[in-house]
Amino acid sequence: MGSSKNPFTATLGATPPLLVGRQQEVADFELALDSGPGSHERVSLIVGARGSGKTVMLDRFALSAQQRGWLVFTETATSGFTERLKRRVVRELQREEKELGGKTLTSFGIEFFSLGLYLTWDTNPNIRDTYDLRDALTDLLQLQTVKAEQFNLEPSGVLITLDELHHRRNNEVIELGAITQHLVREDREIAVVMAGIPSAIKPLLAADRGKNPVTFLRRANLIELEPIPQQEVMAGLQQPMQEAGIVWDSQALQYAAAECGGYPFMIQLIGSQAFRTANAKHVTMQLAETAVATAKRRLNKLVHEPSLADLSDVDRAFLQAMAHDNGPSKISDIANRLGQSPQYTNNYRKRLIDAEMILTAGSGKVTFALPHLREYLRELQQAEHSAYNF
């Protein structure tokens, strides 16, 4: 394709050229922003497997907020994220001070920007040490409110997006939740959207309040990223190509879309490879097959390997037992292959469903949630068998 820019983004977390299959979630969030404080979707939790589009959704929600004049703070839930958020909010207050030519922020009744606004932040280190994230957000939200009133602006607020949410950051998640709840009760223009993989989030949603008192997560708007319908997958493959002057053969497009399995990242992988190999701005069936084969290899490396690494040995053995079947697996067959009781096997069935590695497929049956995981597990089994017999 020469020097033409590839319209697909075959990198985990990168924003695709066309967001398909998630329009309703975006519309619901935008309506919540427009409906005022207290709207349920303003505090949302996005859950999905790797490559299901969690980070892309966070970015799309951030864009919706920015288009409405909201301030957006994006963070990753690694250690210290609440302190990093506080520092960024304080820097925003300092930027506002400089931009509007106001006085130093103080905690002792000095007017800010001559707007009649009093803040609690101070440059004195002794006072600053007691100034926490709740103080900073309260000041910034109050400033946003006063600016809107004084300068006849549309009301705006603050959106915090938090990626890679994990139960290992329990204490900081609890802190952010408590702050969010206080601000919501005060009718502040605040929104918080978090995202993470199921195995990292499920413990935070546990019903045992004594061990995991993150009640605000259980009350949040839960967005579970489902597979994208086939027709929208086809649109996700076709439209970016059309805009680049490339045409799919009808059969090639249907084949490529089917191989995506409704999985957003696979759309980008296959689309990217098809774009690279398109001959005379035309994607034939042969080129589609080549693109799919290359995309599968990348999917194994980027998604399947790390997904399996998160699981226990028994979890992986359960999946290996499923890989013997060409379609949905019976729990009774899996139990026999594992040499375990149905009750024992069902415990791991539930774990893997919670981790979104498998899905129910009718009474007493399960199937793989990730596309082409069955093939990858069979390749691993074959490699182990060959190495053993070498």
Describe, in plain words, how this protein is organized in 3D.
Residues 19-182 form the Orc1-like AAA ATPase domain. The protein is an alpha/beta fold and 390 residues long. Helix content is 53%, strand content 11%. The strands form 3 sheets. The protein has a 5-stranded parallel β-sheet, sandwiched between helices.
Give a brief outline of the structure:
The protein has 390 residues and is an alpha/beta fold. The chain contains 16 helices and 10 strands. β3 (158-163), α6 (170-185) and β4 (190-196) form a beta-alpha-beta unit.
What is the structural class?
alpha/beta
Biggest β-sheet: strands ordered side by side in the sheet: 2-3-4-1-5
CATH class of the largest domain: Alpha Beta
**What would you say the CATH architecture of the largest domain is?**
3-Layer(aba) Sandwich
Say how many strands there are. 10
Q: Please state the average pLDDT score.
A: 87
In CATH terms, the superfamily of the largest domain is: P-loop containing nucleotide triphosphate hydrolases
Number of domains: 3
Please give the radius of gyration in angstroms. 25 Å
CATH T-level fold name of the largest domain: Rossmann fold
* Percent helix: 40-55%
Shape: globular
Low-pLDDT residue spans: 103-117
Helical segment count = 16
State the end-to-end CA separation.
43 Å
**Can you summarize the main beta sheet?**
5 strands, parallel
Strand content: 5-15%
Order of helices and strands: HEHEHHHEHEHHEHEHHEHHEHHEEH
Pfam families: AAA_16 (PF13191)
Protein name: Type II secretory pathway predicted ATPase ExeA
